[in-house]
Amino acid sequence: MKEQVLWLICALYLGIAVDLPKPFVSTSLTCYTYQKKNGRTIKRLMDDCMFGNACCYSAEFTDKQTGETVETGGCEDEYRSIVGTHPTLGSMLPITINYICEEGSCIERATNRDVTRLCACTEHNCNGNGIDDNIRDYHERVRKGLVKRPPDFANLVEQTVQILIDG
Fold first, then answer.
1. Order of strands across the sheet that contains 30-37
2. Which domain, by its residues, includes 62?
3. Which of 26, 118, 122, 147 is the most buried (most CB within 10 A)?
4. Is residue 18 part of a domain?
5. Which CATH number does the domain housing residue 154 bear?
6. pTM of the predicted protein model
7. Predicted confidence band at 46 (pLDDT cuts at 50, 70, 90)?
8. Where in the sequence is the signal peptide annotated (predicted)?
9. Distance of alpha carbon 77 from its chain centroid, rounded?
């Protein structure tokens, strides 16, 4: 009797597991999570991203005054956190942030104090060789016409507003 109950529980559990929606059964994106300071790796590990992550990222922040460079990489959820809190990248429109992740593109922003380079890619472990490799791959895909540069949505919005004002 106990064995029958055990088998019934196992069968029910298996039935529930098989009926789960695809996002819970499918594998997530795998990205390299790393940190480098002035070229020296501080942390590096392969990370199975949480479900719903569509891209891996690599970002490099260079302080022009000190010459210090920090490079970091990881999953989309961390990418969105970094972009949202960074003084230079935080001014990007949400549509631009989404475009970079979804299309696997790169941007560079510079101020009088720092230079920021940011790339996203959409394949497993695509950020494993750091930002320089991601930028080379991105430029090659642009050259082949496989991806477009992120549009400057700020100028697009300004132009649209001007057209509306002009009538």
1. 40-48, 30-37, 69-75, 56-63, 114-121, 106-110
2. 27-166
3. 118
4. no
5. 2.10.60.10
6. 0.72
7. confident
8. 1-17
9. 7
